[in-house]
């Protein structure tokens, strides 16, 4: 089984996803994108199943916007369980933590989630 190769236009697909969002959601996810890329500078990005995904040999994390919230998809329910104390105050569902542009995820928390995913 081969690993999918990133599209030459993958970053533009993520840009297009973000450009289609309302300003406050776009700003929140652009901030999140920056933190992820800063933490995992060698990751590639693409849109898969309608969601921007960051990949380092395999899917690392994803992000998305919905009507009433934004999400960071950790792709790891066990990690979200292990970080329950640190995620207090945010809604967590499976491998996804929800937040709003008005109450974004703290940078340190995003960095920890990405680093832990890199270890997995």
Q: SSE layout and pairings?
A:
Blueprint: H1 10-19, H2 23-39, E1 44-48, E2 51-56, E3 58-65, E4 70-73, H3 77-82, E5 91-93, E6 96-99, H4 107-119
Antiparallel strand pairs: 1-2, 2-3, 3-4, 4-6, 5-6
Helix pairs in contact: 2-4
**CATH C-level category:** Alpha Beta
The description of the largest β-sheet is: 6 strands, antiparallel
Low-confidence stretches: 1-8
Helix content: 25-40%
Task: Describe the 3D structure.
With 120 residues, this protein is of the alpha+beta class. It has one domain (10-119): Aspartate Aminotransferase, domain 1. It has four helices and six strands. The protein has helices at residues 10-19, 23-39, 77-82, 107-119, and strands spanning 44-48, 51-56, 58-65, 70-73, 91-93, 96-99. It has a six-stranded antiparallel β-sheet. β2 and β3 (58-65) form a beta hairpin. The longest helix has 17 residues, at 23-39. The radius of gyration is 14 Å and the shape is globular.
In short:
The protein has 120 residues and is of the alpha+beta class. The protein has helices spanning 10-19, 23-39, 77-82, 107-119; strands spanning 44-48, 51-56, 58-65, 70-73, 91-93, 96-99.
Keywords summarizing the entry:
120 residues, 6 strands, disordered N terminus, 38% helix, alpha+beta, Aspartate Aminotransferase, domain 1
């Amino acid at each position: 089984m081969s690993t999918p190769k990133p599209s030459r236009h993958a970053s533009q697909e993520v840009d297009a996803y973000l450009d289609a969002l309302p300003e406050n959601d776009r700003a929140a996810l652009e901030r999140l994108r920056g933190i992820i890329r800063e933490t995992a500078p060698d990751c590639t990005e693409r849109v898969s199943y309608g969601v921007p995904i960051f990949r380092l040999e395999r899917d690392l994390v994803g992000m998305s916007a919905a009507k009433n919230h934004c999400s960071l998809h950790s792709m790891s329910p066990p990690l979200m369980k292990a970080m329950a104390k640190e995620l207090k105050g945010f809604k967590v569902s499976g491998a996804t933590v929800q937040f709003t542009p008005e109450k974004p995820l703290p940078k340190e928390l995003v960095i920890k989630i990405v680093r832990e995913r890199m270890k997995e």
